[in-house]
Amino acid sequence: MAKKPLTTVVIDALEDIKARDIQLVNVMKITSVFDYIAIASGDSTRQTKALANNVIEKVKEAGYDIIGSEGEGTGEWVLVDCGDIVVHIMQPAVREYYKLEELWQEGKLEYPKPKREAKAKVEEVAEPVKAKKPVAKKPIAKKPVAKKPAAKKPMAKKPAAKKPAAKKPAAKKPATKKPAVKKPKEAA
After folding, report:
1. What is the pLDDT of residue 134?
2. pLDDT digits (tens, 9 = 90+) for 143-180
3. What's the whole-model pTM score?
4. HSE of 14 in the Cβ direction (CA atoms, 13 Å)?
5. Residues 35, 85: contact at Cβ < 8 Å?
6. What are the phi and psi torsion angles at 110 (to 5°)?
7. Is residue 144 part of a domain?
8. Phi and psi for 115 in degrees, rounded to 5?
9. Angle in degrees, CA 107, 111, 116, rounded to 5
10. How many domains are contained in the chain?
11. Where in the sequence is the domain holding 38, given as residue range(s)?
12. Which of 3, 23, 50, 157 has the fewest Cβ atoms surrounding its Cβ within 10 A?
């Protein structure tokens, strides 16, 4: 009997204990330390510990080795190192704070399948459905519609004519000064 892929074993183990928001990211092109990172949420310390224990048990049952695990004491963030996959099980507040998804965003999300890929797979697997013959539709007789006379548009009000500005009284012209006549200097 062939071994189940490690990714499938880990995802199944997380789903068994009702982990939330499970993500599996392929990081082969980003790091050579491991191939995948799995991130999941548990609602309580008890659930995160149970999820980690279930992953460890199922991975060992499937014939794979566990390198180690950390964080079981507090249960806020438990890490299980399965060699090719590192599993992070976190409480929602801790997951929101550390945002591992953003840290590994250059990787390829493999679970849950992106909607486009999942839809394409469903279409490939589904058997072609025999097309039904189109039913001839009877033409619907159109009733003549009486045309209504075009509604008159209300006339737009013209802006009120501007009144000419009141005439200002003409400014007084300065009186022209007569040239001053120079008085001859008296001889002394």
Report:
1. 57
2. 666 665 555 555 656 556 666 666 665 656 655 656 55
3. 0.60
4. 27
5. yes
6. -110, -20
7. no
8. -55, -40
9. 90
10. 1
11. 6-114
12. 157
